[in-house]
Amino acid sequence: xxxxxxxxxxxxxxxxxxxxxxxxxxxxxxxxxxxxxxxxxxxxxxxxxxxxxxxxxxxxxxxxxxxxxxxxxxxxxxxxxxxxxxxxxxxxxxxxxxxxxxxxxxxxxxxxxxxxxxxxxxxxxxxxxxxxxxxxxxxxxxxxxxxxxxxxxxxxxxxxxxxxxxxxxxxxxxxxxxxxxxxxxxxxxxxxxxxxxxxxxxxxxxxxxxxxxxxxxxxxxxx
Amino acid sequence: xxxxxxxxxxxxxxxxxxxxxxxxxxxxxxxxxxxxxxxxxxxxxxxxxxxxxxxxxxxxxxxxxxxxxxxxxxxxxxxxxxxxxxxxxxxxxxxxxxxxxxxxxxxxxxxxxxxxxxxxxxxxxxxxxxxxxxxxxxxxxxxxxxxxxxxxxxxxxxxxxxxxxxxxxxxxxxxxxxxxxxxxxxxxxxxxxxxxxxxxxxxxxxxxxxxxxxxxxxxxxxx
Lengths: 223, 223
Hints:
homodimer
């Protein structure tokens, strides 16, 4: 085989891989990773089953590759936009905004991919749940680091530890995703933003414009 | 058939029903409701498949009966203990304590049954997701009502609406369950209690002993 023909085959393989993973991150977010099967994907994408098998080898390899592909999409949509802002309170707020946008715009059709598959595998052991736990730990580590940097910048009081703030922020984000997908409603995102603003106002040493509650978001006298 | 023999058959049917549902709420909390099949249950419980089929009729009926059985367990473990306290701030706190106990003691082996099956069916339509949505709405309505009663008793400021407080409390409870099951850790429950205490202190008009942070729960200087 000439080098050019080999290159062509590798390139076609990579294209097929991308095509398959584009589909599996979607299925994963709506039906979970157990719903993935090489045969089903081959049929849906009109590929040969042996071709898909040659690229991924096994259902488990396909599940792991799907988690890696979803992580990349997550980083591009949630982490990278926040890193465009300098460390400090503002970056925490922008991280919150990008998370809520990521969930509400349904970057994955079933809402947050990682929440879906965490619930699916939470009680299980093996390479797939290990990869999910590892992604979760990495993500929480990033939030904690973002908070520690804001503490170091003098933007936060010492009332709450970085660990505690991480817990509270992710609780609001994740609940807005769960409720929005389950009830097909935008209201949970409004509640999440209100909760994050109140939390960051209580935890910060400064008054920040972006943490002020929009005047029209609450009707007077409602409870 | 004499009445006595009929009574005996009905009673045996009820016993088998209870036996099956005891098992299905457990499987539901760890593997989800799609994992239930009449054949598998018959094998696991050493019953005849036709007997299980006669009692439930279809997988969907079994799933719906499982949700009803789980609701009863949920009410007994979470709602009833809170109702033992008079309406007001204290009842909200006790509701929080009973929720955290319900999750941490693994009343269902996979953690909160409803969180598991909500994630499983969140993107779907049909009688099973409808029953899950209905249970979720009923539960949130109960929390909201509990908060409105505390507002009426003068225990809460008007800073947060009952809707908003419901969102924030359930976010802390649910995140502690998710993180505890996924990471096999008790730490998320400590974080949830800290978060709920801070939230209720900020929202309440009174100083309450039960909302004071235990002195030993934070190490000095940690962040």
